Amino acid sequence: MLRDRFGRSIEYLRLSVTDRCDLRCTYCIPAGFRGFEEPEHWLTFDEMERLVGAFARLGTRRLRLTGGEPLLRRDVTGLARRLSALPGIEDLSMSTNATRLAHHAGALRAAGVSRINVSLDSLDRECMHRITGRDSQPQIMEGIMAGKAAGFDPIKINMVAMRGVNDGEIEAMAEFCIANGFMLRLIEVMPMGATGRDASFLDLGVVRERLVARFDLVPQAEELGGGPARYLATRDGRASIGFITPMSQHFCATCNRVRLSVDGTLYLCLGQEERFEFRPLLRGGASDAELEAAIRQAIELKPERHEFSERPEKIIRFMAQTGG
Predict the structure, then answer these.
(1) pLDDT tens-digit map of 46-81
(2) What is the pTM of this model?
(3) Confidence (pLDDT) at 196
(4) Is 138 exposed, middle or buried (0-12, 13-18, 19+ CB in 10 A)?
(5) Preceding amide of 68 cis, omega within 30
(6) Cβ atoms of 143 and 98 closer than 8 Å
């Protein structure tokens, strides 16, 4: 098992297959941004498979495909099939905005993707237009329902909660998720890049109290998915709501994940600059043993915690560049 210098087991890799997205969410990619990674710098699927295989040999068990929007990468279903077959990978999931999911849900499920997380910040069509930069809600809803029909379980709905933007819709979103058997996860905005710093931060502690009273929620005993969310459940166990609170109640002490960007850069923390470049090794003839040694070296760089609260201006890259 990979362990960092603070004793944390690193078993979860988030792999970005593209930094491009067909939406421009206000907290993620700046409007008009054109500085995406050049395609010749993208890791090929062979390179991704080789590097993920090395992580798996060292104890990585959970793998999530991210972006940008991963379904923009051509034949990402074929990549999923290859990665799900790697020895040691026990859980393959995907984060998506679902605009293209209706066309890919069945094939992704057959390729070995077992779970999906869908970004949905509002049930109101006009509000989603303002947040995402286009009239995206009908496609997203179609994609979510296609995912449900394809048998993805659970489907997690990720809602970035923003003061004065969608905070009045949180109860309605919870009701929607409970009615459809989805798992709602509320997320605090992180100050990544100018877009993240400009978003209207909302402390989820207050929201949590509202939802506990409204839906009679109790602490969730079962661990759900190995990520950072802290869950509450309805008393009948029929539904769960998760809270991801990197700002108001950070979870750095239990962080078990690293992020690999599409160009082969491994980011060790969303809120720090430590990184390791794997593309030169992959294209320079490194052996499997050398790759594994490099992974161990990279994990040693993982910092103890982020500094979003103390130095919100520190991270100038935006979320899609890091990889979900």
Answers:
(1) 999 999 999 999 999 999 999 999 999 999 999 999
(2) 0.91
(3) 47
(4) exposed
(5) yes
(6) yes
| DSSP 8-state class, residue 251 | -
Contact yes or no for 209/153 (Cβ under 8 A) = no
Look at the alpha carbons of 59, 249, 179, 97 in this order and tell me if their dihedral is positive or negative: negative
Across the chain, where does the E strand assignment appear?
A: 12-16, 62-66, 91-96, 115-119, 155-161, 183-188, 217-219, 230-234, 240-244, 257-260, 265-267, 275-277
Distance from C-alpha of 195 to C-alpha of 25, rounded to nearest angstrom: 9
**E strand or H helix at 180, and its extent?**
helix 170-180
Residue 29: what pLDDT?
83
State how far the Cα of 266 lies from the Cα of 261, in Å rounded to an integer: 6
Residue stretches of the chain with pLDDT short of 70: 191-199, 221-227, 247-250, 306-321, 323-324
- Tell me if the bond preceding 191 is cis, omega within 30° of 0: no
pLDDT at 311: 56
Q: In what order do the strands lie in the sheet with 115-119?
A: 217-219, 230-234, 240-244, 183-188, 155-161, 115-119, 91-96, 62-66, 12-16, 257-260, 265-267, 275-277
Look at residue 307 in the predicted model and tell me its pLDDT. Answer: 63
For the chain, give me the number of helices (H) and strands (E)? 11, 12
